[in-house]
Amino acid sequence: MKKSIIFSLLVSAVALSSCDIFEIDNMAAPNETIEGSVVDTLTGNPVLTDQGSEGIRVRMTELSYGDNVDYNPDFYCMPDGTFRNTKEFAGNYNIRVDGPFIPIVREDTRGVPLADGSKTVYIKGDTKVQFKVFPFLNVEFVGYPTVSNGQITAKVKVTRGVSNDKFKELVQPMGNYNDNFTNVTDIQLFVSYSSTVGYRARDDRWSSKLEYAGDAFESLIGTPVTIKSTKGQVIPSGRHVWVRAAARINYDTPAGSGTRRWNYSAPMEVIIP
Description:
With 273 residues, the protein is mostly beta strands. Helix content is 10%, strand content 38%. The protein is built from two helices and 18 strands. Strands 13, 14, 16, 17 and 18 form a five-stranded antiparallel β-sheet that branches. The chain has a four-stranded antiparallel β-sheet with strand order 3-2-5-8, with no helix packed on it. Strands 10, 11, 12 and 15 form a four-stranded antiparallel β-sheet that branches. It is globular. The chain starts with a helix and ends with a strand. The relative contact order is 0.17.
């Protein structure tokens, strides 16, 4: 008899617990929107990037539950330097971006804040933010790329978005400074059938690069540099491809992450005759 009573109590407890499992979640799905852009402080031009982990990282931390909370999952800007996320809960958030520009959040080796260009906003409805930054480099095509025997030839001009002196003024206080940080290490020519061409959307058969040791590129700043798609790899006649040029310096962002991010040109369509 006692065993029967105990058994009945256990069954009841399990039944009650099961009811909790199958309860309907009445919390509304996140549907607030945050959208933003990253632009050059000096020119107002968008900071062009790659769409992926080599591009501009957006990091959000919801502050509604106090200061000691983990940040939300990172996401990345689109190639034109804009971002949009339509699946956020309403609330107070801190937003920062990291990319091929002077870090907007800087502190010294002791963790003492030096600068904080992050944004704290209340997201409700469609909320917009803009970040003004100092890009490391500006990259542009000079004229229109030419095609001969299925190979693309382009002229690329790289200029500094922030002077070496200004870079040092802003970055050196963070500690562990090295004058080689500002060295341009490579120029890339990315080729793809996709208009989102870049490191993440490139065709390795045709994409190519020029690499530079030390400060060898310094004398070429502001001077058109010729770069060609991969020699011997013919792009088929009649095809439409997209090209973008990219260049980067010897500095990773965030500092210590090991990720050196490219500054990009605008994409350009090339028709192969």
